[in-house]
Amino acid sequence: MANNVAEFRTCPRTGLQFHKSAETLIKANAVAAVVALLVGGILALLVVLTRWQAVHIIDAENFYMVLTAHGLDMLAYWIIFFEIAVLYFCSSTLLRSRLATPALGWVAFWLMLGGAVLNNVAVFRGDSSVMFTSYVPLPANPMFYLGLILFAVGALIGCFIFLGTLVVARAERTYEGSIPLVTFGALTACIIAIFTIASGAIILIPTFLWSIGYISHIDPLMYRLVWWGFGHSSQQINVSAHVAVWYAIAAIVFGAKPMSERVSRVAFTLYILFLQLASAHHLLADPGVSTEWKVFNTSYAMYLAVLASMIHGLTVPGAIEVAQREKGFTKGLFEWIRKAPWGNPVFSGMFISLLGFGFLGGISGVMMGTEQLNMLIHNTIYVPGHFHATVVIGTTLAFMSLTYFLIPTLFNREVIMPGLAKWQPYLFGLGMAVFVLAMMGAGTLGVPRRHWDITFAGAALPYEFPGTAWLMLAIMGISGLVAIVGGAAYILITVGSLLWGKKLESGAYSTKGTVLRMPVATAITGHGSAGFAAPGTFVFALVFLAAFVLYYFVNWKYLSTVWGLS
Amino acid sequence: MSAIQPPAQRVWWKQPVHKEEILWIVIAFAWCLVMFFMMPYWHVYGKQNLSSETYRVTPALFQKAAEEMVAKYTVRTETDEKIPVVHPPAGADIYLIARLWAWWPILELEQGKTYRLHVTAMDYQHGFSLQPENINVQVLPGYEHVITVTPNRAGTYSILCNEFCGIGHHKMVSKLYVK
Predict the structure, then answer these.
(1) pLDDT of residue B74
(2) What would the pLDDT profile of A366-414 be if each residue is shown by its tens digit?
């Protein structure tokens, strides 16, 4: 029985217990993720320097190729490799269990890696510049779809290993009580991932068959409908995963416990129930789908998920506030946040991620997902502005902050260049925030996304964008460079620490695992009492709501001035 | 004790919930309801709602309809390519073709008048982006989308393509006049 040979070590600094086979797999997936981030980051530099119209560095053909690869390497390979690492960590490590079927974990890893490489090869051959979305009937090389399919199959196996590990942990009683909230969040991500990958298979397999001539026609609207079940839902995996990471970091840095388990878990459940169909908002400007369908799927499906995000937006900082107040930071409304460890990149990155995701990504996303308002920004550069706030500031920065915790814990190395590490989340997060705002500004002026040249050189008829649009693209270019420097610093620190960081004691391996005990319940003052336990957070939440309401209605006002349409 | 450990109570779902959590959930849910009602409300009282009137169409059929309109209502041509400018009467069905990499023909409309704009793509997916008005609609091959438009300001507008459609994507620009 595998259980008899499973080897564990306990990290002397954190008390976390690592299963040896799981540990190696987590490392492999995390390293693959960082390599993808490096490739995607170099491509980001070329994209930014081309869309910055005054610089405009590469030609059209290369631009569309590079943009396609940038999307795939970042959105698919960096994030999903890292998520598989997070899934293994949240099951095996947090539950102190052996990982189910590590051998299959390697099959998953090599499938994912092979798929990612194949897909990249297809793109860099130059005959698959079809963007991340690969909308039919725009043709790509069959290898393009095949690579994606292999990658997805690998990721799917990873999801089932996660579920298997939960079963093993329960059967072998490696923990008491219910699974921790962070593992519950990872479970949410895993369930959404299975739905997502199934949608991807349903559309990418026929598209692959179409690309080799087995199927004559793929309906473009059907493609969009099903593809977005994959394309958008994969972003919901990210949301669930990075919210779980927020909770984890709040627990790691502050020892914060969830304000109430029930509220946070119900919020995750809302993601599972309602988030996926929200992908309908990609079809709000499409022909062929009815108004009722659009309204139903964006409101019923999306707003209940928005509600869930708004809940996490309160409960994550709320948990930090409660923990800080218990430590004695009780002065006024905001002492707990002023005295937070802003120099610790694990915390600062996580908090910037939370703010950026909520204020920039969340508000813009809901505005875009409103049936009529969508017409104002559909396919403009506003859209990548929005999702750079969600997946770059939100997901990527959350994963970066977790990395600073994982380097000493998982890799047993000291983080090199602590001074740079301290600044890295600010460079990356704030650079990205300005970048995102500039993109949204340009999008509001109508600048299209995925567009090589807004001077329209060589077009039969001219169009000139106002000077403000050029200014916005310049701001986007400069702040994009700042963010890229921040991203490069992350890679330098991570890779450097793994290679040259001071080795730390890792704890000896033994075949005996320990059981994760339920913490002793303490009578906590403030729980359910008459006063607020986290008044500062509540004020933040109200500020957020005010910004949300204001921005939402400003856009309706803008819509009311455009041409009548019916 | 923390989010990476099991809940402190075995029966955690009976643990009392914080006051601010309840209050925030109520406020956030109310706000979600407001956002939901805004969409149907705008369908009744607002003037900018995207039509969902759509027909299946073949490129040849649509081309024929567009050519008939051009034959009837062309007032002049523009550029060396002699792109026809059509000035259809108010209330007319007008046809706009999106193809690699041009919009055809050029439309000339009248302010305050209403038209039924038919639009489709002949090859790949395209994006109808009216600038500087900033109205953006997806255009799919095989689907004829009929949008009722009422231009509310005179001027010279441009139609850009904002769905990536290949190497000449950035050259896909046309004009639209409102008199």
Answers:
(1) 97
(2) 999 999 999 999 999 999 999 999 999 999 999 999 999 999 999 999 9
Which residues of chain A, if any, have pLDDT below 70? 1-4, 520-530
Tell me the three state secondary structure of residue A380. strand
In angstroms, the first-to-last Cα distance of chain A is: 67
B170 and A454: CB-CB below 8 Å? yes
The candidate with the shortest Cα–Cα distance to A207, out of A115, A129, A144, A113, is A144
Same domain? B129 vs B63? yes
Question: In the numeric block, which tokens belong to residue B35?
Answer: 């956002």
User: Which letter does DSSP use for residue B96 in this model?
Assistant: E
* Cα-only R_g, chain A: 23
| Measured distance CA(B60)–CA(A377) in Å, rounded | 31
Q: How many domains does chain B have?
A: 2
Question: Residue B145: what are its φ and ψ, rounded to 5°?
Answer: -95, 125
Q: Which of residues 121-160 of B touch A (CB under 8 A)?
A: 123-125, 127, 129-145, 147-153, 158, 160
- Tell me how far apart the alpha carbons of residues A410 and A159 are, in angstroms, rounded to a whole number: 21
Report chain A residues whose CB lies below 8 A from the CB of B23: 538
Range of the domain at B59: 54-178
In this prediction the ipTM stands at 0.96
Torsion, Cα of A231, A233, A234, A235 (10° steps): 100
For B97-141, how does the pLDDT look when each residue is reduced to its tens digit (9 = 90+)?
999 999 999 999 999 999 999 999 999 999 999 999 999 999 999
Interchain CB distance below 8 Å, A451 and B162: yes
Q: What is the CATH number of the domain that holds B62?
A: 2.60.40.420
Do B75 and B93 have their domain in common? yes
Q: Are residues B67 and B127 in the same domain?
A: yes
Q: What is the per-residue DSSP string for A95-107?
A: TT-PPS-HHHHHH
* pTM summary value: 0.95
Contact yes or no for B138/A286 (Cβ under 8 A): yes
The answer to whether B49 faces chain A, any CB pair under 8 Å, is: yes
Say how many residues make up chain B. 179
